[in-house]
Write a structure and sequence with these properties.
The complex is a heterodimer of chains A (357) and B (798).
Chain A (H helix, E strand, L loop, with lengths): L1 H13 L3 H12 L4 H7 L6 H40 L18 H15 L3 E2 L5 E2 L1 H4 L10 H4 L18 E2 L5 H10 L3 E10 L10 E11 L4 H16 L6 E8 L2 E12 L6 E2 L4 E11 L1 H6 L8 E8 H9 L12 H7 L16
Parallel strand pairs in A: 1-4
Antiparallel strand pairs in A: 2-3, 4-5, 5-10, 6-7, 7-8, 7-9, 9-10
Helix pairs in contact in A: 1-4, 2-4, 5-11
Chain B lengths: L1 E3 H7 E2 L4 H11 L2 E6 L1 H5 L3 E11 L2 E11 L2 E7 L9 E5 L4 E2 L4 E2 L3 E3 L2 E3 L2 E2 L26 H8 L7 E5 L10 H11 L3 E2 L17 E3 L9 E8 L8 H9 L7 H13 L4 E4 L7 E5 L5 E3 L5 E3 L5 E5 L2 E5 L3 E2 L12 E7 L2 H11 L4 H8 L6 H16 L2 E2 L3 E4 L7 E3 L4 H6 L5 H10 L3 E3 L2 E3 L10 H12 L23 H15 L3 E2 L5 E2 L1 H6 L19 E2 L4 H13 L5 E10 L7 E10 L16 H14 L7 E3 L6 E11 L3 E9 L1 H6 L6 E7 L24 E10 L4 H9 L6 E11 L7 E10 L8 H19 L2 E2 L2
Parallel strand pairs in B: 15-18, 30-33
Antiparallel strand pairs in B: 1-13, 2-14, 3-13, 4-5, 4-7, 5-6, 7-12, 8-9, 10-11, 16-24, 16-25, 16-26, 17-24, 18-21, 19-20, 21-22, 22-23, 27-29, 28-29, 31-32, 33-34, 34-38, 35-36, 36-37, 37-38, 39-41, 39-42, 40-41
Helix pairs in contact in B: 1-5, 2-5, 5-12, 6-7, 7-10, 8-9, 12-13, 14-17, 19-20
Classes of the chains: A alpha+beta (357), B alpha+beta (798).
């Protein structure tokens, strides 16, 4: 029996492929194999002999079977290894092409702004871009023929001879949304109103269309000091620089009183702009306490309510934050520009995750 | 508005430096735009003396000079004819910047001789246009700073010029006295009292003035006076220097005097050559059609109602805006009629705008001048004319009367704290207002006559805060309106817009922002371009009409990119389109275009021209992202800028269209200058129904544990039969059992013959109660075949 065992274990070990192994299996433990034949002989044995030989033969059968199956899997592994060895790819070849989309900086920055103001309880208001003369000017305390009107470089819409209304305008600022929002919602109110605005001006630093965001907060005791804090908090959050400082400077806007232009501390050292440090000041926005006449125009009682308004250039904020040099390029749709300054589709600005990556 | 430091000091006693003054101006709301200080420009130059001069050995017109300087003797080669021994000169050393020639000097060799600097002419130092020779000074020691010498001997040459921007509410600051008043209120000095003049008339003016009854409202007051026997000519150097410094061209003494008052006191005046005036003057409204050649030598035609000044010969002056050329003063004028009038500002603005005249007079009169200074102005200007031109003054003729602009507002000293948030003692507030010319009576503050902008109590607060300086304002937290976690702030539409934008970007499109206005032809091609959406004053013909669609802007962007070598593009925009010229006639759309191929060439052979099904997949993705129902109606009538057969509108029924996709019309593509193919999609964002308010629960998941079964069928149908018809018919065969029907193959022509196609579908059956038996499957299959054959007129492909 030991011979038998030796013979087949050797044969299994020496088998070079699965076919040989199968032959060995048939010869050894197949129905007519040597082990099977031996097992048939058990019937002729005495019970005592049988008791010894039976288990031995069974053990031999198991041993050969497991040797075969072990050999089988090792042969398979070797075959797989051999196959894998030939399956080499030059993975430095390019992958399957996929287009990479992008979000325009104007959209991204607008979302950043609304994320910050949303956290401060401002909702987002909207209004039309073809706007009536009344909403764009009169309601904002800019009566007809006021010299301030000329400073807006207004685009006027064509007006048919038969139509006696003042021609509509392309809104020159987002301020008319203040009026519309207050008419709709009354006071107290906190809104921002981002969107396109239009002025007839086209040169190195001006485009006939650009983007503003208006801010408006009306309540019973909101003061200019609250305005300063709000703008400072906004700038620190938006530019992601803690040390940002603002300076208020008296100015004049027909729709606010007192009015202030707001400068941000910066440095131009070495020709590069750095916010929040240095001794220079750069004007970034106009603001003030909403003029009583404006509140009145919107149906809000100026004896009870007061508050602030401000206007920021979205394109300008984007340029400052992301170092984009030329305003005109915002509207040129140059693919190289869109890819370079654009944002990833899933890069949604949030307060918890931060505004920029 | 420009002014010089010395001119300011006519009105303000101050020791403040230019920088302090400029800083205060900006902080007070008179924003400084530029400071031009000759001291900065000329600070480097020192005095030197030529101790020896001889002819250059190799050049006849050059001299080699030995010059004594504060750094010892230097050799300087000079070409000026007056370079000679003994003169005191202005020296620029190597390293100094010479403004008039825009050069920073270095040691140079001129015809073989080293030259260590230069001796400057007046032009080289931008002091004048004089360039006939170098500056020779009559006094001064070697090493003295040239600016110090100028300050002592010719101060106007080193007078700093400050330019400020004036907001429309501050006409008073269009006069230098007004600026001085603000600075004095801020504490930068003391106001000097205004000199009072009184010129006695020696005779009655031969020219009389009347104001027509219907014009009194627009010209309430007109004062005039004849001064005879004047000698006009160039004005004195000091006056010329001042006018030049603030950017005006000196013309003649009489004209320069009027300009002086314009800038000094914001008081425009006019001078007529009295000998050219025929008879008396009358202020009246134009009938319309009259003409006048103005002082700017342009002819103006008046509209009905414009206020003009006429004599017996006709219109001679545009009241408060510009005088006429024919009655203007010249060097030969000997009798002058001086005018000081008060004009109603709206009328000035209207007329000025209609005639397109931008004069200093219009600019000031339309913002509002001081009516109380009318009479003093006549006297002060008369005195100046007598001083500079001689002559004899008549009595003053007066038409109308000084308008009463007096008004007072309640001063609530607590208001500064509650509105601005600054703590300023009541005393200081009152002091500030008094310094600005307000007259306080108890708690009432009367506005000064030169401040037409002060129209309420809030203006008093503004004045106090402005003078106290808003830089002192300290921020104060704005309390939250709501205690707790901030609420969502976007409207469903705003959220949808953002969702659509980021979905399209995820699909590989680059977002563009293009102009809302486009050219008329382009707009017309996309169903717009009518007069309703036309701009009255477009900036160019390329930007004349509000866009009816986002496609033209995107196509133009594609064409620009193709010209830069980018042929395959995926561009999109989210923005407004305009259906009409009224404020509410707009909607926000999202539109994308795919141009050229699906991608760059690759090894996989996957590159192919974009087609309508790319656009279809994308429009479906966007619609799904914003919550549109999955099942939409196809409307095959496309607008004319789309390919008529390769696209569809998708709607909730045929009337309520949510979006569209397809190939653009070949003509549209060609006219846009884009190399195609171009496919596009568009979605009307607001048209997709918003979900009705409900909870956040999703409903239970309905997923059967039983094995689903898939069966394939192929049908031969006419090639005009739409797949959707077949799919719907199949799906309708057993709505409970059939979970999904999907077309996986289309085969046209070949053995099927002309006009036929085969569509293959796979139907997924999802049993719910028990595993499907062969018999069940057989039954539903038969039903599917029957339904499809009936609906499409086709047959199961054998």
């Amino acid at each position: 029996m030991d011979d038998l065992r030796h013979k087949y274990i050797e044969a299994v070990a020496g088998a070079a492929d699965e076919a040989t192994l199968e032959d060995i299996r048939v010869q050894a433990v197949g129905k007519k194999g040597e082990v099977a034949l031996k097992m048939r002989e058990l019937g002729k044995m005495t019970p005592e002999e049988r008791q010894i030989m039976g288990p031995k033969l069974n053990a031999l059968k198991d041993e050969i079977n497991s040797a075969i199956s072990a050999k089988k899997s090792s042969l398979a592994d070797a075959a797989l290894d051999e196959r894998l060895r030939t399956e080499w790819l030059d993975v430095t070849l390019p992958g399957r092409p996929a287009r990479q989309g992008s979000v325009h900086p104007i959209s991204q920055v607008t979302e950043e702004i609304s994320a910050i103001f949303g956290d401060m309880g401002f909702s987002v208001a909207e209004g039309p871009q073809i706007e009536s003369d009344w909403y764009n000017f009169d309601a904002l305390n800019i009566p007809p023929h006021h010299p301030a009107r000329q400073e807006f470089d207004t685009f006027y819409m064509h007006r048919d001879g038969a139509d006696e209304r003042a021609p509509h305008v392309l809104r020159t600022h987002t301020s008319p949304v203040q009026i519309r929002a207050m008419e709709k919602q009354g006071a107290p109110i906190r809104v921002i109103a981002p969107g396109r605005v239009y002025r007839s001006d086209y040169d190195q630093t001006h485009t006939p269309m650009f983007h503003q965001v208006e801010g408006l907060a009306i309540d019973k005791d909101i003061s200019m000091a609250n305005l300063k804090w709000t703008l400072e908090e906004f700038c620190r959050a938006f530019f992601e620089i803690d040390g940002i400082e603002l300076r208020f400077r008296a100015s004049h806007f027909p729709f606010t009183e007192p009015s202030a232009e707001v400068d941000i501390r910066c440095s131009w050292e070495g020709g590069t702009l750095k916010l929040g440090e240095g001794d220079d000041w750069m004007e970034i926005l106009g603001s003030g306490m909403v003029h009583p006449k404006v509140l009145q125009s919107a149906g809000v009682d100026p004896d009870v309510w007061q508050g602030f308004a401000f206007g920021l250039g979205i394109d300008r904020l984007a340029m400052l934050k992301y170092g984009i040099p030329d305003l005109r390029a915002f509207f040129d749709s140059d693919l190289r520009w869109l890819r370079h300054y654009g944002f990833s589709a899933l890069d949604v600005p949030t307060m918890r995750g931060g505004l920029s990556r | 508005m420009k002014f010089t430091l010395s001119w300011l000091k006519d009105h303000l006693e101050t020791t403040a430096s230019v920088d302090e003054i400029a800083e205060a101006c900006t902080d007070l709301g008179l924003e400084v735009e530029e400071i031009s200080n000759p001291m900065d420009r000329l600070g480097a130059f020192t005095l030197a003396k030529v101790t020896h001069a001889e002819k250059h050995p190799d050049a006849d017109r050059l001299r080699v000079c030995t010059v004594a300087t504060n750094e010892g003797d230097k050799t300087i080669v000079c070409g000026a004819p007056n370079a000679r021994e003994g003169i005191t000169v202005v020296l620029a050393k190597p390293g100094d910047y010479v403004p008039g020639i825009d050069v920073t000097l270095s040691v140079g060799k001129i015809r073989g001789v080293e030259s260590h600097g230069m001796m400057a002419s007046e032009r080289e130092l931008e002091l004048s246009d004089e360039h006939d020779g170098i500056i020779e000074l009559p006094s001064g020691e070697v090493g003295d700073r040239f600016v110090d010498w100028l300050a002592e001997h010719n101060p106007t040459k080193v007078d700093p010029v400050i330019e400020i921007a004036i907001t429309p509410n501050r006409p008073d600051a269009l006069g230098i006295r007004g600026i001085a008043r603000d600075l004095a209120a801020r504490g930068l000095g003391e106001m000097k009292p205004l000199k009072e003049h009184k010129v006695e008339g020696r005779f009655d003016s031969p020219i009389n003035v009347t104001i027509a009854d219907d014009t009194a409202e627009d010209c309430p007051l007109f004062m005039g006076r004849l001064i005879k026997g004047v000698k006009n000519g160039p004005s004195p150097a000091w006056l010329q220097a001042r006018l030049k410094a603030v950017g005006l061209r000196p013309i003649s003494a009489l004209v320069d005097i009027t300009n002086f008052f314009t800038y000094d006191m914001n008081r425009p005046l006019h001078v007529f050559d009295a000998d050219k005036v025929t008879g008396d003057l009358i202020v009246h409204r134009a009938k319309g059609g009259e003409t006048l050649v103005g002082l700017d030598e342009k002819e103006y035609t008046f509209g009905e109602g414009m206020v003009v000044i006429s004599d017996e010969a006709g219109v001679e002056s545009i009241g408060g805006i510009m005088g006429g050329l024919s009655t203007g003063c010249t060097e030969d004028t000997t009798n002058v009629f001086l005018e000081a009038a008060f004009w109603e500002n709206i009328q000035i603005a209207k007329t000025g705008r209609a005639l397109k005249i931008n004069s200093d007079a219009r600019y000031r009169n339309e913002r509002g001048i001081d009516p109380a200074y009318n009479a003093p102005a006549i006297e002060a200007a008369s005195q100046m004319i007598l001083d500079l031109c001689g002559g004899e003054a008549s009595n003053v003729v007066v038409a109308g009367a000084e308008p009463d602009v007096s008004r007072a507002y309640k001063l609530d000293t607590d208001r500064v704290q509650s509105l601005v948030g600054m703590d300023i003692p009541a005393d200081e507030q009152r002091k500030t207002l008094t310094a600005l010319g307000f007259v306080l009576d108890g708690d009432m503050a009367q506005a000064p006559s030169w401040r037409p902008d002060v129209l309420g109590s809030a203006d008093l607060v503004e004045e106090v805060a402005r003078v106290a300086s808003l830089t002192k304002l300290v921020g104060k937290p704005l309390p939250r309106t709501h205690v707790g976690v901030p609420k969502a702030i976007l409207t469903p539409m705003q959220k949808r817009e953002g969702m659509a934008r980021r979905t399209v970007a995820t699909l590989g499109y680059n977002e563009c922002v293009t102009y809302s206005f486009i050219d008329q032809e382009g707009a017309a091609r996309f169903g717009g371009g009518t007069d309703a959406v036309k701009l009255a004053n477009p900036i160019s013909s390329e930007m004349s009409h509000m866009r009816p669609s986002l496609l033209p802007g995107l196509l133009a962007a594609a064409a620009r990119n193709q010209s830069r070598g980018f042929m395959d593009l995926a561009l999109f925009e989210v923005g407004p389109v305009f259906h009409g010229g009224e404020p509410d006639e707009y909607e926000v759309m999202v539109t994308g275009i795919l141009v050229g191929h699906t991608g760059p060439r690759d090894r996989f052979g996957a590159r192919r021209p974009v087609d309508a099904f790319d656009a279809k997949a994308d429009v479906e993705a966007v619609l799904a992202a914003i919550g549109a129902p999955a099942k939409l109606t196809y409307v095959r009538e496309m607008n004319e800028w789309w390919h008529p057969g390769r696209g569809a509108k998708l709607g909730l029924g045929p009337k309520n269209i949510l979006g569209a996709f397809g190939e653009l019309h070949p003509k549209t593509i060609e006219q846009s200058g884009v190399k195609g193919p171009v496919v596009a999609f568009a979605v009307h964002l607001a048209k997709v129904p918003f979900p009705k308010a409900k909870g956040t629960g999703r409903g239970a998941l309905d997923a059967s544990d039983l094995q689903p079964v898939e069966r394939d069928f192929a049908f031969v149908v006419d090639d005009t039969v739409e797949a959707i018809k077949l799919v719907n018919a199949a799906a309708g065969a057993d709505k409970a059992l059939i979970a999904d029907v999907n077309v996986f193959d289309e085969f046209i022509g070949g053995s099927l013959g002309e006009g036929k196609k085969s569509l293959a579908i796979t139907v997924r059956l999802q049993p719910r109660d028990a595993t499907l038996t062969d018999k069940d499957i057989e039954a539903v299959s038969t039903k599917i075949v029957q339904k499809v054959e009936k609906a499409t007129g086709g047959a199961l492909r054998s």
